[in-house]
Write a structure and sequence with these properties.
With 579 residues, the protein is α/β, with parallel strands linked by helices. The chain contains 20 helices and twelve strands. Helix 2 (27-47) runs antiparallel to helix 3 (53-72) and helix 8 (159-240) packs antiparallel against helix 9 (245-275).
Length: 579
């Protein structure tokens, strides 16, 4: 089979010299088969002993050449195969008719007629032409039986053409399957190579996705950590300058800028978690009206400097308490209000909260620039804004509405809008919220801390000095008589716990030497009961669900994310201290 191997090695170079139309797929085999057939027909023109053979075989060769030219110009390959096979069938039928019918060696040619349609087009085409050949053979057999076809003539002049007929048919019956077996092996090899490439690409994409998630989590942690200090100290200062309007104004502007930055950070992180299915909903029971008022009030300082009518409209029959994810609902409302104010320079922005048969509908209606009809189907796509220059003019990252839509679905509702370009927009969020019973300890939320006068000993474990300073300030503001110890890592935390009695530990998760997860595990394994049973409140800027799950499983008494609200933070602490 050395000749076959040599043929396979030289075939690509030969194919590269063909016209471009004949270099792909099955086209090279069709081209070579047609060329060989034309050469054989021309040989039969020279040696065939039958009358009109030169004209018939010469005409068929010319027709095949014409088909090759037409296919090169764009004629359908399947159409060319059908036409060529049909012409061949007619010529062979005539050749067999004039040379003895079913006794003629020319019938051998009909054995190979269905091969080209079968391999080049499909099985159905092959079986069709096989049926045609069988019908022609039956016609000739009947004609022989009835005496319509003359008896087969023998003689020395028939030897060359008969020998060539049998030889060529035998070769074709062997070579054509070999050719298509080679095609199959090539296709299989290409398929395997392509599969390997896809597998390598899949692994590369998985690695890229994992690196992206790690990068986003790392960046988020590194951004949220200083933001915890910025927002925390801002809240402390705000509580101390209520009688100083100018300072209060500056701090409010600082708070707005910090809140906007936190929105961008959270949007990027939330979208990453939505893509991986890691964003979860945490329902809780809360008062509906104060939440809507808080979302509305967040933008009052910005509106005060704008020429806008900014209103909140709530139905009188709204339920007092509802159950859903309060933070996610707040996130969507803030996003809708922020967008409305960003794109509205005059007129009004109205936040409406209405009770419907299906639950609660939140709506934000504005008289801003609106959205063109042809752009409306793109509004909820990620990193997309209505116009190409919207981001340049108005800012934004194009993630807010995409995240809001996903959050609305996770909350069991839906989000939509109506808009007219130049006249404004109305975005709505519909959630299946039902009235809920007031949770326990509601009345205590706005009362002074019961343990404010006690001298607690707290231990703050955090590697960032600003975070330790912030916690110390918050704790000593709420519990003036308290003592606050500090540790820069988990190892130092364990040493302090063994040296001194502590009422509560505030544990960061990411620290050098020993992280908060390992430190908490070791605390819970301590033989001494006073250490083993000390309340541990986890504080972290890491929001990766897997990491948070490991942190909780280590033995935390509770967990809060940075940045946190000081009032809520102190309430959680008192619950743990008095439990």
């Amino acid at each position: 089979m050395n000749w076959l191997a040599s043929l396979r090695q030289g075939a690509p170079r030969l194919v590269s010299h063909l016209p471009a139309r004949y270099q792909d797929g099955k086209m090279p085999y069709f081209f070579f088969f047609m060329c060989i057939t034309i050469v054989v027909l021309l040989i039969f023109v020279a040696i065939s002993p039958y009358p009109f053979a030169s004209v018939i075989f010469g005409s068929l060769a010319a027709c095949l050449l014409l088909l090759l030219w037409l296919v090169n110009k764009g004629f359908s390959l399947n159409g060319a195969v059908h036409v060529g096979t049909g012409l061949g069938a007619l010529v062979l039928f005539y050749g067999a008719w004039v040379s003895g019918g079913v006794y003629s060696p020319r019938l051998g040619w009909m054995l190979i007629l269905p091969l080209t349609p079968f391999y080049v087009i499909n099985r159905r085409a092959g079986f069709f032409w096989m049926s045609v050949v069988l019908v022609l053979q039956v016609v000739m057999a009947v004609s022989n039986h009835l005496g319509w076809i003359q008896a087969f003539e023998t003689g020395i002049k028939h030897v060359p053409s008969s020998y060539l007929t049998y030889t060529f048919v035998t070769c074709v019956l062997m070579v054509v399957p070999l050719i298509y077996d080679h095609m199959y092996r090539e296709a299989l090899e290409k398929s395997r190579n392509h599969q390997q490439e896809l597998e390598a690409k899949r692994e590369e994409l998985e690695h890229t996705a994992a690196m992206r998630e790690h990068f986003i989590a790392t960046v988020s942690h590194e951004l949220r950590t200083p933001m915890n200090a910025i927002l925390g100290f801002n809240a402390l200062l705000l509580s101390r300058v209520q009688d100083k309007p100018e300072a209060l104004k500056v701090l409010n502007h600082t708070r707005q800028s910090a809140d906007h930055l936190m929105t961008v950070i959270n949007d990027i992180l939330d979208y990453s978690q939505l893509q991986t299915g890691q964003l979860v909903i945490q329902p809780e029971t809360f008062e509906l009206r104060p939440l809507a008022e808080r979302a509305f009030e967040m933008f009052k300082p910005r509106v005060d400097s704008m020429n806008l009518s900014y209103r909140l409209v709530q139905d009188d029959n709204l339920p007092v308490w509802v159950t859903t994810d309060r933070h996610r609902l707040m996130q969507v409302l803030v996003n809708l209000l922020g967008n409305a104010l960003k794109f509205t320079h005059q007129g009004s922005v109205v936040l409406g909260v209405h009770w419907t048969d299906a639950g609660v509908e939140f709506s934000v209606q504005d008289t801003g620039i609106g959205i063109a009809k042809e752009q409306q189907d793109q509004i909820f796509r990620r990193f997309t804004q209505a116009e190409k220059d919207t981001q340049t003019i108005y800012g934004g990252n194009g993630l807010g509405l995409a995240i809001s839509q996903k959050v609305a679905q996770l909350l069991g509702g839906n989000i939509g809008f109506e808009s007219v370009a130049g006249q404004g927009s109305r975005f709505w969020l519909r959630l299946p919220l039902l009235p809920a019973a007031a949770p326990a300890q509601t009345l205590e939320q706005h009362q002074p801390l019961h343990s404010a006068g006690r001298a607690w000993t707290f231990l703050v474990a955090d590697d960032h000095p600003l975070n330790r300073l912030l916690l110390k300030q918050v704790l000593q503001n709420a519990w003036p008589l308290s003592i606050v110890l500090e540790a820069v890592d988990g190892q130092k935390t364990l040493e302090l716990l063994r040296e001194q009695a502590v009422d509560m530990v505030f544990m960061d998760m990411v620290m050098p030497v020993m992280d908060g997860i390992d430190a908490t595990l070791l605390i819970r394994q301590e033989p001494e009961a006073r250490i083993r049973q000390v309340p541990v409140l986890g504080l972290t800027a890491n929001v990766n669900p897997v990491d948070l799950g490991r942190f909780k499983a280590a033995g935390l008494s509770d967990l809060m994310l940075k940045p946190f609200e000081p009032e809520q933070f102190c309430r959680r602490i008192e619950l743990l201290l008095l439990a």
